[in-house]
Every structure is written in structure tokens, then in C-alpha cells.
Amino acid sequence: MPGIGRRIRRVLWRLALGIIGLWVAGIVMFSFLPVPFSAVMIERQLSAWFSGDFRYVAHSDWVGMDDISPWMPLAVIAAEDQKFPEHWGFDVSAIQQAISYNERGDGRVRGASTISQQTAKNLFLWDGRSWLRKGLEAGVTLSMETVWSKRRILTVYLNIAEFGDGVFGVEAAARRYFHKPASHLTQSEAALLAAVLPNPIRFKADAPSGYVRNRQQWVLRQMRQLGGESFLAQHGLR
After folding, report:
1. 89 Rama class: left (phi>0) / alpha (psi -120 to 50) / beta
2. What pLDDT does residue 102 have?
3. Are the beta carbons of 73 and 65 closer than 8 angstroms?
4. How far apart are the first and last CA of the chain?
5. Where are the domains of the chain?
6. How many DSSP H helices and E strands does the chain contain?
7. 40 in helix, strand or coil?
8. Which residue, 50, 224, 197, 22, is CA-closest to 125?
9. Which CATH number is 31-234's, of 3.40.1080.10, 1.10.3810.10, 2.60.40.10, 3.90.1300.10?
């Protein structure tokens, strides 16, 4: 029995090293290669197949930052992570505020994930809340922040973010909801897409609720307060 236990631990250790090796290779490769799919896309696709939905197709159409309207990166920064150009992957003050809020115990949970953390989770990990996933997410986030530029993180994020049921990436979202390429998105359209990001399955860009419309207007105000397109140039994000 002791020998079996050692063999199991050895297998698990090798498996863990193999997974870490794949993550490291992915981080290096995707620092310059287009990302063909993400872990969340695979998870959504397998879930659809297992539930018998063979019409569901999770895919994204990769576009570089030069082929994305400047309003779109500004909108997601305004909506999701206004300190994105400054932090090293984690917004400590936002984490502290989220902890204080969640300790009140009113049943609602506030997150504090940065764009970098969301990119790490969407690309390499899985949905759900657990200390294991958060720990892995922290390690992947630090690795990405070390190897990738902020512009690269933002580009990957915009290409794998979920904007609706089966709609991944800003190019697919722009064509699905506005019948145009991502390069032609207006300020208002970009703000609407950013407004659904907290829950793109519940919130609909093609049938926005009053809450989504209010959030869109809030995002637009935040975009103006950040300084508009000059904010992106100032921080080397265009």
C-alpha cells in the first residue's frame, strides 16, 4: 500500500508539472501568436454538447488592436479596471473593498478581478469560485504581467471575453450585434458591450434591460472622465 501511495503522488506531481509546463508554453506563445480558443470557450462547448445542444458553437475571430475601435479598449477599462495601466495584475484597494463588502453577509458577492486576472482565468482556467482556482489565477496573472505588455493583455482579453451566448471576442460581438467589424464600433456601442461583461449570459447586448442601459451611460461617463482616446495613447495601449 505505501508503494501505491508513492506512485499515485508521483503521477499527480508529474501531471501538475505537465499542466504548469503547458501554461508556461501558452504564455510564451501567446505573447505574439493569435489565441485560437480559451479554456472558457472549451468549457462552454463541452457543456453544450453534454446537454445535447449540438448547434452551439463557441468561437472567436481574432483581430489585432489596430483592427479594434479605440473606444472598445477604453470602454472595458472604464467598466472593469480603471487602474489597469498602473497595477501589476492586482488592484489591492479594490480587493480590500470587496472583502469588506462581502463580510457584511447580505448574500451578494462583489468581485475585484482586474482585466489581467480575467484574462488569465478565461484563457487558462475554469469558471467557479474556489481557493485553488484563485491561487492558480494569481500565479498565471503574475506570469502574464511579467512576459506580456499591457497592450498584449488587453488585446487578448478583448479577443476572448464572452459577450453573449456563444459570442466570444469583440469582433464576433460587433458583427453579431451591430453588423459591422470591431474597427467601426462607436463610443456608444463599445460602452454597451462593456456594460454586459459582468454577466454576458444574463445581460443582453441585443436586448438591453434598463439596468444595462443605465450601466452603458455610466460607462460612457467614466470613459469621458478618463480622458477619452488620449488615455490609451498616454499609457501606450494603442
Report:
1. left
2. 56
3. yes
4. 59
5. 1-30, 31-234
6. 11, 2
7. helix
8. 22
9. 1.10.3810.10
In order, the DSSP letters of 94-133 are HHHHHHHHHTT-SS-------HHHHHHHHHHS-SS--HHH
According to the model, what pLDDT value does residue 19 have?
A: 74
Radius of gyration over every alpha carbon of the chain, rounded to an integer in angstroms: 19
* pLDDT at residue 24, rounded to an integer: 83
Residue 235: what pLDDT?
Answer: 93
C-alpha cell at 188: 456608444
- pLDDT mean values, one per 10 residues, the chain (238 residues): 68 71 85 93 92 86 96 98 94 72 54 89 83 86 95 98 95 97 98 96 95 98 95 92
| Contact call for residues 167 and 193 (beta carbons, < 8 A) | no
What does pTM read for this prediction?
0.89
CB-based contact 170:191 (threshold 8 Å): no
**Cα–Cα distance, 154 to 84 (Å, whole number):** 9
pLDDT score for 34:
95
Q: In the chain, at which residue ranges do the beta strands (DSSP E only) sit?
A: 162-164, 167-168
Which amino acid makes up residue 7? R
